[in-house]
Specification:
about 180 residues; alpha+beta; OB fold (Dihydrolipoamide Acetyltransferase, E2P); 5-stranded mixed beta barrel; 3 helices
Length: about 180
């Protein structure tokens, strides 16, 4: 004779389903109000286009930092020799390059994750002494393509006045 199995009440499952629906509604409302910090919202123009910031299929995401977007595009196309202004986070502080003109070197990660080497001439401009990993900086300099992501140089004034002046900004101070 088969054993009788106790029947479970449907009320427990109903309560669980209602709780999950309520939780989903709360998250949907919070996301709509942009109060969930873990989910990045695309810029207003991208939301209006409905593409989430990516533009057409196959295009790179649109970056808020126009300089960073120019660097990423130049890297992808192998372009060099243009002055650009951008900002990012210092990911590594490297040893100085002491061959020829001395350069302070560090790697900066741009907002999309692309990294560039910054080579700051410390024979022509002051060293950024307080620079540490994790610091946010802004820079203006010339981009040179390489297979590792590119190099930013000319982050100083040109003593001969033939090249656009560059700079590095760190903690409210401009180094040029």
């Amino acid at each position: 004779m088969p054993r009788a199995t106790p029947r479970r009440s449907g009320r427990g499952w109903n309560r669980l389903a209602l709780a999950l629906i309520a939780l989903a509604l709360v998250f949907a409302l919070l996301e709509r109000r942009s109060e969930l910090p873990s989910r990045a919202r695309p810029p207003a123009e991208a939301r209006e286009r409905g593409d989430g910031g990516a533009g057409r299929i196959g295009e790179a995401p649109r970056l808020r930092d126009a300089g960073a977007a120019r660097i990423v595009e130049a890297y992808r196309s192998g372009r060099s020799d243009f002055v650009v202004q951008a900002s990012g986070v210092v990911r590594a502080v490297l040893r100085d390059d002491l061959d020829g003109s001395r350069h302070q070197r560090f790697i900066v990660e741009l907002e999309d994750g692309h990294s560039v080497l910054v080579a700051h001439n410390i024979d022509l401009a002051p060293r950024v002494d307080a620079l540490r990993r994790g610091d946010r900086i802004s820079f203006k300099g010339e981009y040179e393509w390489n297979e590792k992501g590119g190099v930013i140089h000319w982050t100083h004034r040109d003593p001969a006045g033939r090249h656009p002046h560059g700079w590095i900004e760190h903690e409210g101070r401009r180094y040029q």
